[in-house]
Specification:
Blueprint (H helix, E strand, L loop, with lengths): L1 E3 H4 L9 H10 L3 E6 L6 E13 L7 E6 L4 E6 L9 E10 L9 E3 L2 E3 L1 E3 L33 H4 L6 E5 L10 H12 L13 E2 L8 E4 L4 E10 L8 H9 L7 H13 L3 E5 L7 E6 L5 E3 L5 E3 L5 E4 L4 E4 L3 E2 L12 E8 L1 H11 L4 H6 L7 H16 L3 E3 L3 E3 L8 E4 L1 H8 L5 H10 L3 E5 L2 E5 L10 H12 L20 H15 L3 E2 L5 E2 L3 H4 L12 E2 L10 E2 L4 H12 L6 E11 L10 E11 L4 H14 L6 E4 L6 E11 L2 E9 L1 H6 L6 E7 H7 L15 E10 L4 H10 L5 E10 L8 E10 L8 H19 L2 E2 L2
Parallel strand pairs: 11-22, 12-15, 27-31
Antiparallel strand pairs: 1-10, 2-10, 3-4, 3-6, 4-5, 6-9, 7-8, 13-21, 13-22, 13-23, 14-21, 15-18, 16-17, 18-19, 19-20, 24-26, 25-26, 28-30, 29-30, 31-32, 32-36, 33-34, 34-35, 35-36, 37-39, 37-40, 38-39
Helix pairs in contact: 5-6, 6-9
Length: 797
């Protein structure tokens, strides 16, 4: 934002120079980007009066002006055609310096010496984007008489610098001259002089021109309107044009310039409609209809949707609210009666509409940050006052104000001791109140507390700490002395869940597996590739509203597709063996469509192919969980699981509850992922693992007595799970069986079809005596007999 100090001084009696002012405002929280000085770039340019104009005898496109600068009359040769006798103009004398660094010299134009140059606004240092269109290619004509020979810097009031500020989004009140004047007054402890808004002569009644204003959308908080009659469209006064240009806006015409002037002054955008072009003499604020079109001021037809707010009359849309007015009701030289609009719209709606149409304007940038609803009336009344003062029209008596949900001022209780503690200083209550009052925050002391009424223009003040920050910046954060940190040092450590995860990773890495990480988003087609049935709950996934693409459009409910993608990628690049694991999250919705955050559960998945088989992966799972203190796992054969090979899959059970699944991937799934080798996948519920993990290691002394080993090889039905066999063996152990180890499973030659050979090594040991052969043989025999009876098992010779 550009802040002309000359304009700022209308509200604050500033005595310090621009550098000091900038430093103080920066220290109080207003970030200064730069200081712009027009006067420093021009030298020896004065006011001159054109006494006479005559044609150049040797050049058709040149004229010779006799310019009076008080002390003498100079011949000036120029090609400009917008000058007339009697005009007061800026004249650069011989030796003058222009804004672009050009030095003026006496020049011979085809036999006529020119002792200077008539200047345009660009040559005085103004940017092309703020120069009025009619003056862009011509000489700048002063609007009134000035002392001849007077320095143009004084004549055009260019003595003061312009400060450029970066306004943070939470301070929309500072996007105005008065807002920054309030900051300057508080920072320098000076009085703020706001305009005394008073209209001297009002006539007739607004009902003659506007019958009603209706609000049909919740996205319009307030709409305030007044009318001006007998409008005379023309240029605005020079003082107003100068202030607008210095603030970065191009003067257009008196009515438009007034609305822009007030917007810059108060931060409230205004709009002027040609009142005679309003159908039905009414204003309706509503949501646009889908497909509705409007031609905006830039002569572009725009297609609207129901997300956009429009200003309409009885028949048509006449403006996109807060963004741009309509072409049909634009103020033109033929305009006689004007409706002035001061409205307050929903900031989010304006931001989305402005972004959609790529229409970023001074008005939309203010609306989308939030505006005080009170400013609607203040700004319109101020504009009426200025229109009356410059003679651009006559103000009609009365107004129409639609403001149902009046904003209630917030009261915040401030604890002075809390403020001092947070800031690390000692400020009296009276000093705190002074700082707050200077910022327009009326405050008083009650029962040892400070109660502050937050002004409606301070949309950023909501909590006690917000007031403490205001006190701190007015006191000056740079005035707060640095102090050593005081506190109790504590040793940080990872949460228990993270410790379990890290330990599991170390175990798996020690077993030779590599960790992988994948995206939480997958393609919905992945569920078809892994043969998930249509009624499987895994298909209850959450769809993303704005995905990166179809391959990342849903939140995963299983890690299997991610693991198979990685195995496929490595297999098809010639990697002969992969041993992977991943600890990641799956997302289960509580309901569809989603109304609440989904359940986010941690799962560990495994994937292998190559020389490894089902039993390798089972051993990995057993060893990992055993090292985490989880034992007595049970593997139950399952033929019905989607994705897996029937008969080569097991559910992993712990204490009667499912902990996970382990098995060989179905050949059709492997084919979908272009893997010809057998693939083994497993997954475990890591949340349950964390619950069951025990990191307490208990000491157990080494055994005093020797062990005895017995091997047993059995031939039995292929369908009998080895887990059932191990259960039966343990039943006969009489607490003497220390370990059961399956060391061979064989099918093939010498083994009947549909049968298998399994071999176990059983270790016996007693904690209080040396075992003898007889008692071990007795247990061994009872095991064999029970296996024969239960499963028809035969000892293999």
């Amino acid at each position: 934002m550009l802040l002309p100090i000359n304009w700022l001084k209308d509200y604050v009696d500033i005595k310090v120079d621009s550098k000091t002012l900038s430093d103080k405002l920066t220290m109080s929280g207003s970030h200064v980007e730069s200081i712009i000085s027009l006067k420093d770039n021009i030298k020896n340019i004065v006011v001159g009066k054109i006494e006479s104009i005559q044609a150049h005898k040797n050049a058709d496109k040149l004229i010779i002006c006799k310019v009076n600068i008080g002390e003498e009359i100079l011949d000036i040769v120029t090609a400009a055609r917008n000058v007339n006798e009697g005009d007061y103009i800026p004249l650069a004398l011989v030796g003058a310096k222009l804004a672009d660094g050009t030095i003026i010299e006496k020049t011979d134009f085809r036999g006529v010496d020119s002792f200077g140059m008539l200047c345009s606004l660009s040559e005085l240092g103004y940017s092309d984007n703020v120069i009025p269109k009619e003056m862009r290619d011509g000489i700048y004509i002063l609007d009134r008489e000035h002392p001849l020979g007077e320095d143009i810097v004084k004549a055009m009031e260019l003595e003061e610098d312009i400060i450029e500020f970066e306004i943070t989004p939470n301070r929309p009140d500072c996007l105005s001259i008065i807002g920054m004047a309030r900051e300057a007054a508080a920072t320098l402890d000076l009085d703020l002089k706001e305009p005394n808004i008073k209209i001297e002569n009002e006539l007739e009644d607004i009902s003659k021109y506007i019958k009603s204003i209706e609000i049909e959308t919740p996205n319009c908080n307030r709409y305030y309107g007044r009318t001006i009659k007998d409008v005379k469209i023309g240029p605005s006064p020079q003082w107003m044009q100068n202030k607008l240009m210095e603030a970065g806006m191009r003067p257009i015409s008196n009515i438009v310039d007034v609305t822009n002037y007030v917007m810059l002054e108060y931060g409230q955008p205004l709009h002027a409609f040609d009142a005679d072009k309003l159908e039905g003499q009414k204003i309706i604020v509503r949501q646009a209809k889908d497909g509705e079109t409007i031609k905006t001021l830039d002569d572009v037809d725009r297609k609207l949707s129901s997300d956009d707010i429009v200003i309409a009359d009885e028949k048509y849309s006449i403006g996109i609210a807060g963004v741009m007015g309509g072409f049909e009701t634009e103020v033109s030289p033929a305009t006689k009666n004007v409706l002035l609009e001061g409205a307050n719209f929903d900031d989010k709606s304006i931001r989305l509409t402005s972004k959609k149409f790529n229409l970023r304007s001074e008005a939309s940038s203010r609306f989308e940050k939030g505006i005080d609803p009170k400013l609607s009336q203040i700004a319109v009344d101020r504009a009426c006052q200025l229109i009356e003062e410059i003679g651009a029209g006559r103000v009609v008596k009365g107004n129409i104000d639609v403001y149902e949900n009046v904003k209630i001022e917030n009261i915040i209780r401030l604890r002075p001791e809390r403020a001092n503690k947070i800031l690390g200083i000692e400020i009296s209550k009276d000093e705190m109140i002074k700082y707050l009052d200077n910022l327009g925050i009326k405050s008083e002391i009650k029962d040892e507390f400070i109660y502050s009424i937050v002004p409606s223009f301070r949309l950023d003040l909501e909590l006690e700490v917000d007031l403490i920050e205001e006190i701190g910046r007015m006191y000056g954060f740079h005035n707060i002395k640095s102090k050593p940190l005081v506190g109790v040092l504590t040793r940080g450590e990872k949460p228990y869940e993270k410790q379990i995860e890290d330990k599991a990773k170390r175990i798996l890495q020690g077993l030779g597996l590599n960790e992988v990480m994948t995206y939480s988003f997958i393609s919905p087609r992945a569920y078809d590739r892994i043969k998930i049935s249509e009624d499987n709950k895994l298909r209850n996934y959450i769809k993303l509203i704005n995905p990166l693409g179809e391959d990342y459009s849903v939140m995963r409910t299983t890690l299997i597709p991610n693991m198979l993608d990685l195995l496929s990628r490595n297999y098809n690049r010639g990697v002969k063996q992969c041993l992977f694991y991943e600890i990641g999250n799956i997302f289960t919705p509580k309901e569809l469509p989603v109304k609440r955050l989904p359940d986010e559960d941690k799962v560990i998945s495994f994937g292998v192919y190559g020389e490894k088989d089902f039993y390798y992966l089972k051993e990995v799972i057993d060893k990992t969980l055993n090292k985490l203190g989880i034992i007595d796992l049970e593997y139950i054969k399952d033929k019905e699981l989607d994705t897996f090979h029937p008969g080569r899959t097991a559910r992993i059970m712990l204490k009667g509850e499912e902990l996970g699944v382990l098995g060989e991937i179905h050949p059709d799934v492997s084919e979908n992922y272009e893997i010809k080798d057998k693939v083994y996948i497993g997954w475990l519920d890591f949340e349950k693992i964390i619950e069951e993990t025990s990191l307490d290691i208990k000491f157990k002394s080494l055994p005093k007595y020797p062990s005895m080993n017995r091997d047993i090889a059995l031939i039995l039905d292929r369908e009998i799970p080895v887990g059932d066999i191990e259960k039966l063996i343990k039943k006969h152990g009489e607490e003497l069986i220390e370990k059961i180890e399956l060391f061979d499973v064989y099918t093939g030659d010498q083994i009947p079809e549909d049968m298998k050979s399994v071999a176990y090594s059983i270790t016996y040991r007693s904690a209080d005596r040396t075992l003898i052969d007889e008692e071990v043989n007795t247990i061994q025999k009872s095991i064999v007999d029970d296996l024969k009876e239960a499963y028809g098992a035969e000892l293999r010779s």
